[in-house]
Design a protein that fits this description.
The protein is of the alpha+beta class. The chain has one domain: Roll (Nuclear Transport Factor 2, Chain: A), CATH 3.10.450. Helix content is about 30%, strand content about 30%. Strands 1, 2, 3, 4 and 5 form a five-stranded antiparallel beta sheet that branches. The longest helix is centred in the first third of the chain and has 20 residues, at about 30-50.
Length: about 130
C-alpha cells in the first residue's frame, strides 16, 4: 500500500483523539499481539455503535465460532460475535493497524444474524 493510500485510510479511521486516555494507557501496557486484538475490538465496538444506532455494542468475542487469523499487523475473524443491549450477534471482521497497534488503518466488518440465547453457552457467550 502506498503512502497516500495509508494516509487516506488513516483519515477515514476513527480519530485518534476519540480513543480515551485510559484505553490508550491500558493498550500500551499489553504485549503487541494482545494490543492488536484489543485495539481492534475497541474499534469494532465504536464503529458498530456509531454506524448503526440500533446497536450499542459493548463486547466482542473474536473467536466465538472460528479461530481468528492473526498477521503481524492485522486480524481477520470470520467467526466473531458481539453483544448489544444484552443480545449477541454474529460478526465477521478484518482489522489492520499501524505497526505499534495503536491506530487502526482499516476496518471492514459485517453484522450477521442474532444468536439465539439457547446457543450462548455452546459458544461461551454470556451476559
Amino acid at each position: 500500500m502506498n503512502k497516500l493510500a495509508v494516509l487516506a485510510c488513516l483519515m477515514l479511521a476513527w480519530p485518534a483523539s476519540a480513543m480515551d486516555s485510559a484505553l490508550r494507557a491500558g493498550l500500551l501496557k499489553l504485549d503487541p499481539q494482545t494490543r492488536l486484538e484489543q485495539r481492534c475490538d475497541a474499534e469494532i465496538l465504536d464503529r458498530i455503535t456509531r454506524d448503526d444506532h440500533k446497536y450499542r455494542a459493548d463486547r466482542v468475542v473474536a473467536y466465538a465460532f472460528a479461530t481468528p487469523e492473526m498477521g503481524a499487523d492485522a486480524i481477520r475473524s470470520p467467526g466473531a460475535a458481539f453483544r448489544s443491549k444484552g443480545q449477541w450477534y454474529r460478526l465477521k471482521f478484518k482489522c489492520e493497524t499501524a505497526p505499534d497497534h495503536m491506530e487502526v488503518l482499516q476496518l471492514r466488518y459485517r453484522i450477521g444474524d442474532e444468536i439465539p440465547e439457547s446457543d450462548w453457552p455452546k459458544y461461551n457467550l454470556y451476559n
